[in-house]
Amino acid sequence: MSIRGARGTRKRGTNEAETMSGANPLMKRVLTGMVLTLGLSGCLTGVPEGLTPVEGFELDRYLGKWYEVYRLDHSFERGLTHVTATYSLNDDGSVRVENAGRKPDGTRDVAVGRAEFQGDPDVGSLKVSFFGPFYGGYHIIALDQENYSYAMVAGPTYDFLWILSRTPQLDEATADALLVQAEESGFAVEDLIFVEQSE
Fold it and tell me: Which ranges in the chain belong to alpha helices (H)?
């Protein structure tokens, strides 16, 4: 399977969007999915073995809006397109996270949570919570450290991967390079979903 072949397929999620009652249904599904996958073992925030979060991370440059370009498919995001993540500072120094996506019926699914560094703030390793005491690992394993124009984020296991961009699409060369890195790191790039962002 070639990397370019994976990009050319550009699988998209099915028209299946699960709805949970209460606030923040999108990221309740995300964190619930992680909990169901990993169990309540404390490994929800850890860095997957063999991966290293970026160093020299600058939070103020990372803040703002990002577009989800690729993701590994899970039921909690299935069917969602036009997914974005917007980061800003809370008064207490934590990070406000607003995730939004478009459901198959055209309505928006919005979730607001908070993120905190797990250690040194110049290392791109955070934990994110959208409800209750549950946290998920957010580990930036690739980053355009010159312009902060793209990022690749891993969750707590190799089942979770997102490729983000400041623009709705990534140029082909950058996308291919990130996909190669993801494959060499051990991710199943053939299973990545291309996230629709066009209007």
Answer: 3-9, 25-38, 59-62, 172-185
